[in-house]
Amino acid sequence: MTIRVLLVDDQALFREGLETLLSVHKDIEVIGQAGNGQEAIDLALNLHPDVILMDMQMPVLNGVGATRRVKKSLPDCRVIALTTFDDKETVFEALRAGAVGYLLKDVGSAQLAESIRRTARGESILDPSVAAKVVAEFSRVSSLETATSSEVPIEPLSEREIEVLRLVTVGLSNREIAEKLIISRGTAKSHIHNLCGKLGAHNRTEAAMRARELGLV
After folding, report:
1. Average of pLDDT values for 122-143?
2. What is the CB neighbour count within 10 angstroms for residue 213?
3. Is position 62 within any domain?
4. Strand pairing partners for 3?
5. Which of 50, 60, 138, 140 is the most exposed place for a label (fewest CB within 10 A)?
6. Could you tell me the pTM of the whole model?
7. Are residues 10 and 102 both part of a single domain?
């Protein structure tokens, strides 16, 4: 299956460079480019991309606003923030708006292509420096909540689920987890789904943060 990608950045040279880099991957097709958030919305509604690479700081409408409006109209579209900014405020605004990935522009081309594939499969992708900020903030909020309320017990995890959880927390994909544990990719995905349910997490990123908070890994 070809993954249809929309590039959104206010620098034309950067967009063109991205398109050239991604063109070598036969399973990824750049279907359009936008120079600001409003153009991104218009093109997304017309082209229905699978994945959008979205800059955060742009004229007319920034990436946060564009992400929020795209996700409202196209909930199945997957947005990856691709930016030079990794400050906590921008990170959390993007994630709250509906971005399922957050990468910095110094990411390698091979890693970017794989991130697009993983995002299209339904996974969440965070740059390591961004993930550290998310975990730190989650831990801070959790500590405040724990100070004012009793801990909610979770359903016990099996030995295999603990193994999978450890691999999730270090950022391995479903395929890598399957290869590491010598199981099928479908089984790995099923374990992660069960983990999220037991930990009260909406996705693998939240599951990893919850695991660290509870001292499970």
Report:
1. 68
2. 16
3. yes
4. 28
5. 140
6. 0.66
7. yes
